[in-house]
Write a structure and sequence with these properties.
The chain has 117 residues and is mostly helical. It is built from 2 helices and no strands. InterPro entries: FAM167_domain.
Length: 117
């Protein structure tokens, strides 16, 4: 479409509380992982920052794993729903066919009664 706008992460409605929590954790982890100003640092500070970056990376990986699990569940539910809809459609077609057969038999019976008179 032409006039559609793309909502930013702050504007996007939450699909579920779990997804909203994961979105917040990802945003928080990325904010903490943002590079800071370069200065002379001691080895202890560098080690602490490296450990913090690894923790941030681990949080991001954890959040991504949660998102993958949620997406797999949604995919499974989508497949189940599609199967259900196809089954319903097939049953509706069978009922229509059956209805037409009954109507045809009734018409034949009525025609036979009229012909006998």
């Amino acid at each position: 479409g032409g006039g559609e706008s793309v909502a930013g992460p702050e504007e996007a409605p939450a699909a579920s509380p779990l997804l909203e929590d994961l979105r917040r954790r990802l945003a928080s982890a990325f904010q903490r992982a943002a590079p800071r100003g370069v200065s002379r640092r001691s080895r202890e500070e560098e080690a602490a920052e490296t450990a913090q970056e690894e923790q941030s990376r681990a949080r991001v990986e954890s959040a991504l794993a949660g998102l993958r699990a949620e997406l797999l569940e949604m995919h499974f539910q989508n497949c189940q729903l599609a199967r259900t809809l196809l089954d319903l459609n097939m049953k509706m077609q069978q009922l229509k066919k059956y209805e037409l057969e009954i109507a045809s038999e009734l018409q034949s019976s009525e025609d036979n009664v009229v012909n006998m008179e």
